[in-house]
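Treating backbone geometry as a discrete language has practical consequences that deserve illustration. Part of our work consisted of pairing the sequence of a single chain with a tokenised description of its backbone. What the numbers capture is local backbone geometry rather than side-chain detail. For completeness, the protein is quoted in full, as a sequence line and a line of structure tokens:
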Amino acid sequence: MKITLDPLVHSDLSMPEIPYMAAKLGYEYLELCSRDEFIPEYHPPRANADRIREFKHALRDAGVELASMLVTYRWASPLEDEREAAVRYWKRAIEIAVELECQTVNSILDRGPSPQRSNFRVGPEMAEECETAFWKSMEELVPIFEREGLPLHIEAHPDDFIEDNNLAVDIIQAIGSPVVKYLYCAPHTYYLGDDMAAMIRYAAPVLAHVHVADTFNHKDGWRYVMNPPGSTTRIHQHLDIGEGEIDWDVFFKTLAEVGFDGIMTSQVFAYLPDRAVASSTFMRERIQHYVDKYWN
């Protein structure tokens, strides 16, 4: 089991500072979130040789391993120019991951927003077109992941062209590559389906990665008021364990029952820097509590 930190709440720190902070808080592994100066969302990688060397040195000096790295590009865009650009960006991101000795990369079944084309919205409504584009990208990228021996972990995300857990798992299995696995994101549970334990069991054959953070059930009553009525906004949270409505005993118990032994990432986003250290410390302790409870 690799208990891992997503350092988004520590974005006030420079990248070289993050490994030392993670080690101080008891984490041996990092899952690098998107960083504008390194690998931003939807834009070409900006990591240069000096930044890569500096971050790699900090990881080694702090004794922290890079378990994964988030990469998000429009690889499922029905617009061919966007898709082709995404594949080019992915190829460079893979080179960076290999240089950093990153153990995996993770991503989403996403087309992504396009502010320049605000009248062209893509989400579940264009699932067929997006899936066609996604498969075309997989034909180009999967051989590279396999050649580099770099595992790719993919999750279904709210407002992706696929939001359903089981359908996402079916696609991962249909890719048929030993390096392409599934990532179950706990704070997305109420979009993925209705039965968390059943979804985890369904994903078990390809489940290699989970994100741990709490959220509220947006389906329950009038908890959220959005205008205009009928908005398609996908509301969810990434909170500390216990601050939402995920049944954590069910989550961890089911993972233990299916033999999960992969990457388990604390992925809390909700807090400002003044609460970041307390949140990451708390999440490290709570995750370890459940691992000791159900795996030992």
